[in-house]
Amino acid sequence: MLTAEQIITDAGLRPTKARVAVLNTLLTSTNALSHPDILAALQGVEIDRVTVYRVLDWLLENSLIHKISSDDRAWKFQLNAPKRNYRSADTAHLGLLNNHGHAHLHCQQCGTVLCIHELAAHIPQSLFDTYRVSNIEISLKGLCLDCQQS
Question: Pick from 74, 64, 144: which is nearest to 105 by CA?
Answer without folding.
Answer: 144
